[in-house]
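Chapter review: from sequence to fold.
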Amino acid sequence: MPLLHRIARKLPNSLIAPFTDQRPAARLIRRSAKRYWKLLSLNFATSLAASLSEGATLGIIFLSVSLISAPENSDWSKVSLLGSLGHFPWLQDSIQGALSTRAGRDAIFVLLLATAVTLQGLMAATSYVNSVSTAVLGSRLGAEITGKLNDRVLSLSFPCASRYRVGDLLDYVGSGGGTVQREISLANALLMNSLQLLIYLAILVAISPWLLLVAFGMAAAMQFVQKLLLPPIRRNSREQQQVSVELSSHQNEQIQGLRLLHSTGQLESSRTKLKGLLDESKRLSIRQSKLSNIVQPISNMLPIISIALIAALSLLVFKDRSSGVLPSLVTFIIALQRLNQRVGTLTGLATSYAANSASVERLNLILSDEDKQFIRTGGQPFTTLRDAIVLDDVSLRYSPDLPVALSSIQLRIGRGQTVALVGSSGAGKSSIADLLVGLYDPTGGCILIDGVDLRAINLASWQNRLGVVSQDTFLFNASIANNISFGVDDATREDIIEAATKAQAAGFIADLPEGYDTKIGERGYRLSGGQRQRISLARAILRKPELLILDEATSALDSQSERLVQQAIEQFERQHTVLVIAHRLSTIVTADIICVLSEGRIVERGRHHELLAQSGPYAKLWNDQSKHPRETSLASTPV
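The token string follows.
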């Protein structure tokens, strides 16, 4: 036990980390692994069977070499492995009798060879089952962890998720399963090699504890090399991970921003940045290869040195053995060579753990609850708006280091009313929409839905009853029908056509090659801006929302497209509750209430004609747009 304790203590921390690490990634892997205890039991049983088969094979080798090297009429009862049969005299006498003749020795030698082959076949079979069970376990856990990571990202609140780059989130979800599969494979290899290492150690101790010092010297040398190499390997791995994430993010942003790159002449700049990242990735990869592969040549050289020392000392150590020098020397060298393989493999595992540590650290970052906010769950379900939505003294600050976005907002949106928000860029119009959608919670005051605080309402049930159309419309790379019916699983083709008709989209859809089954490309690039807006409006109409939010829905459209979308909106407004955020005042003259915002406050409210009569901020905006209709219609979108 003291010997095993010292060996375990000498093992690098990186090898035992999977079983002792209390960080989120390791805990998640262990919890998931418990559900597959049958596979784990099979894995352990096959590892043990393979190790015992290997140990028994070495015993057969010892007997075989003893048999062919010993003179005739030898007293086989003095051979340690046969002498142990003294408790079974009849078996010992039978073997001794068979060994006394040449034919008997040949038959036993053939039997030993067959036994060795059988044992190696058993080891091969159990190793195969072990590898397959490990792969099955790794695949199941990999898929499960990928799903959990996807759920984790989706469970983050919008403010929390928006702090991450798209490439980072994609890397978290995409690489997590592979990281776990590598951890499982490494853990299995650790178990298999550790069991076999103990078998070889036991054999070597039985043959010669003194010569075992050579093995310890070899292990010490390997550990010394490992201690020198692991820190730079870890550092290099972390740098590789950082560059890989940066490269993934840049590639993702480059593809998503192709239009911007083309229109601003930044294609060459993007290429240069990507080439720089690729060069850095190549440099780190080559350096990692140099560091990782230096272990193998040293592992190959040490056995030769060890064998030379053993051969020189074996005559002194084994000269008095009845079985002779050759069987003990051959068995010892084979066991030592196998032990060296296990030590080298364990060292390689430590290197692999170090290389995989950066990926595990990234898993810990996303799995840790520290500095994260999550979508609230629970609350009473929302079904329909009966009375009004009230913003009661609402304030909003997006983060402590940013100025207040909204301050002391008092606003009532009655059921069936159309309320419009206008004002200059940065006045806080879209912030009110963000609060109503539930992307952010107020930092002061509350939002009441029929007298109930929005924070006490089940968020998903509330959002399912909203329709949102913004200037930056997101469409999927799917058919028009699938885009319109997104979020409405029970929508029929008739429902989709009716929504498209109300959104003034049925006409151009009918002219498309495949009609409603036409694929529209990534983010709907095959459609014009006006067509995308009408698809988005049809999607909102199909949901039959209790509240329709139009956030600058027509500001980037040409006159014809704007007129069509505005006609669809006006039809919708007559029967539903609508919040309109508008830059073009001509689109909201029929609104029940128009609120003018400035620096996060409502500075004026009323109907169109009432506000014009007051000659205040709204009247000034109206006069400005009346004098310069083209300039204002092409103005940039306000926040």
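Two observations follow directly from the output. Confidence is low (pLDDT under 50) at residues 1-12, 76-81, 83-88, 629-639. The beta strands are 388-396, 406-414, 418-423, 444-449, 452-453, 466-470, 547-551, 577-581, 593-598, 601-606.
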